[in-house]
């Protein structure tokens, strides 16, 4: 009898699964001192626009309770600031300048690593690879949402 993974290796999608696994391993290594939740918040706030918890939840497609926990943890960690307009009940959150500067440095580092990885491909194939990779990623997200 074969093992589960030996049987799965017969599926053509196995190569995609193992490549995604390697990418995820690399992603974890470059996230830096901030986790994915903080990175996602800082990416969103990099446009400089204040948002309420409801707006954050809607934009990220997350439950408001999840956003409340993540935003308050980022606030406590000094990444976000909040303010309330007179007469308003909702807090407005923004990323502070030092958090955005840290995010920009991490983004530059990450882009540099991706550039190094792209250098492994022949220059003439890079644009096509990125187009196909984007198509694959979109189709995977769509399939996962339907599952």
From TrEMBL:
**Family annotation (Gene3D superfamilies):** Winged helix-like DNA-binding domain superfamily/Winged helix DNA-binding domain
Question: Boundaries of each HTH marR-type domain copy?
Answer: 41-87
GO molecular function terms attached to this record: DNA-binding transcription factor activity
What's a Pfam family this protein contains? MarR_2
Which InterPro entries would you find in this protein's record? HTH_MarR-typ, WH-like_DNA-bd_sf, WH_DNA-bd_sf
Give the signal peptide range.
none
Official protein name in the record: Winged helix-turn-helix transcriptional regulator
Please name the source species.
Aeromicrobium phoceense
């Amino acid at each position: 009898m074969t093992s589960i993974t030996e049987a799965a290796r017969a599926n053509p999608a196995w190569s995609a699964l193992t490549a995604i696994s390697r990418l995820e391993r690399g992603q974890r290594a470059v996230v830096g001192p901030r986790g994915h939740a903080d990175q996602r918040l800082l990416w969103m706030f990099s446009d400089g626009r204040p948002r309420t918890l409801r707006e954050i939840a809607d934009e990220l497609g997350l439950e408001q309770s999840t956003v409340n926990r993540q935003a308050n943890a980022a606030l406590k960690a000094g990444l976000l600031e909040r303010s309330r307009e007179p007469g308003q009940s909702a807090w407005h959150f923004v990323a502070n300048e030092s958090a955005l500067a840290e995010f920009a440095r991490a983004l530059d580092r990450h882009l540099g690593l991706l550039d190094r990885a792209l250098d492994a491909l022949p220059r003439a194939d890079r644009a096509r690879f990125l187009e196909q990779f984007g198509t694959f990623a979109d189709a995977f997200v769509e399939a996962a949402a339907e599952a």
